[in-house]
Amino acid sequence: MKSMDRLMEIKKFYTVDKDDKPIGLHAPLQPFSIEDGVMTCAICHGPLRDITRYGRLVSRMQLDESTKKLNLYHNRGYSILSEELSRHVQRLQQARAPRPVQWAGSLQIYGVRDKILNAMVKIMQKLNPGRWEKLLDFRNRITEYRRRVKSAEQRFQLVRNKVLAEQRRQQTPGYFRITVHDEILQTNAILQAEALEIRLDIALIADLLSPAHLLQMGDMKLDLNLQKPRDECFVLARTAERSGRLPQQVEGQIFIAQLHALERPHTSPSNAQRCLELGKEAIAKARSVCEAHPAQTSGFASEINGAERMLTGVTFYGEVTSEERMVVIRAMAREFQRTWQ
Fold this sequence. Notes:
The protein contains 13 helices and 4 strands. By secondary structure, the chain is mainly alpha-helical. Helix 2 packs antiparallel against helix 13, helix 7 packs antiparallel against helix 9 and helix 10 runs antiparallel to helix 11. The protein starts with a helix and ends with a helix. Keywords: Coiled coil.
């Protein structure tokens, strides 16, 4: 036991008495602070995971290892989905114009993104059936990816929830205070998933509001309000800022500007001017972040310029993700894999 205690450096993790018996926790264990070490007995090479004396150290290693694998899986998934999204939207923009259809009445597009999407799908089924079929299937994949990377699905959060549930069951005081920080949960994956979903939804809104589809609708009244999606983008940007996730902070501001640009032609003159001002404000915020942190926000310049051209009416809607940005995403994925393997 003394040999194993020295090998496992037990005094770094527990407060021990004069007989080397653990009597308390020595200090909080930081995530990923323990290098791959002894997981088996030095003599018989049996596993240590069932040895209570070394349970804290072994559990820490297991949590770190499972989190590394989970993060690698999520990062690969994000890279693949980003490239697929770019290809899907590019094919959508190159698709043929819809056939003429008689349309009567008015259209109301407002509310949260899911409500807007449901309304747009019903409209598109009349305008151009099958046009969004593959994109909607792809959106379901993004939504599933977003569900998997939520903090509740990550190992540290699961452990915390189990401890709190056991405390409530036994009605014991909260001796174990487990605080799960962003760097432990790797919230980058959560924010990336939200940004992917918002990117696709904006592309679908832009497609419905494209000149070809609007011409097909004729003189029909269009009631468009994209405030709820903009609020979601604001929350994305603010959460990313608090978590230090600069790319998603920039993306959130770009999305806000794009949504203002899409709503501007379909609202009152006074609100159109406000959309222009708020859109320019979002563009300025995105640029300021890029200028302050050029290395972490590489590849966003063309997207920011594209959103600005949308606001001023120079272009209707640009590419969903610039090729420069895709190069950065691929490079980051490779570097991430080397770092975490």
